[in-house]
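To: structure subgroup
Subject: Chain for Friday's discussion

All,

I'm putting the inputs and outputs inline so they're searchable in the archive.
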Amino acid sequence: MDFYFSRDGDTTDWTKQEPDRFLEAFHRPMKLIIQRRKIITPEAYTLVEVIVAVLVLSVMLVSLYGGFSSGFAVVKLARENLRATQIMMQKMETVRLLKWSQLLDTNNFLQPAFTDYYDPAATNANAVGATYRGFVSTNAPIGFTNDYSANMRAITVNIYWTNYLKGATNIPIVRTRQMQTLVARYGMQNYVYQ
């Protein structure tokens, strides 16, 4: 590497300077001129790097899609469960409003079978969602003496609906819920507080 000393903007080889000025050059500030080599950097990715990046990106996108689809399936199931609970509560509230004679009349008031829909206000047949089929039973309660069982009924509401796996209409998944209560002819307080 060649070093040049500069004096008043004049760059000359140090060996060609005059001898009396030779030491004077070391006492002044020195300007060092160094020639640098240009470093060549790669400007593109290799084919292997691109393939690995595409592979990692595709795995991430497939995982993201799987997470979204399973999340939507869980939300759909939770909504259907909530609707089934609403239908059962509606039937139980109907039972609460009936008189004893109406409760025993299964032809006119408390019908043993019913059908309801996920969206009862839907305008076309395709938008109703799941179809819920329910059964109401009024039986004498088990485990009570004859004095009580003649004046009490166990009301059970069972509800069923069917889901299908996505894309497969021949693999049904039957879901069910049940709700039960006791109804007394003269009110529960006569049996609880005796």
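Points worth raising on Friday:
Strands lie at 5-7, 10-12, 113-117, 131-139, 152-164, 172-184.
The longest strand covers residues 152-164.

D.
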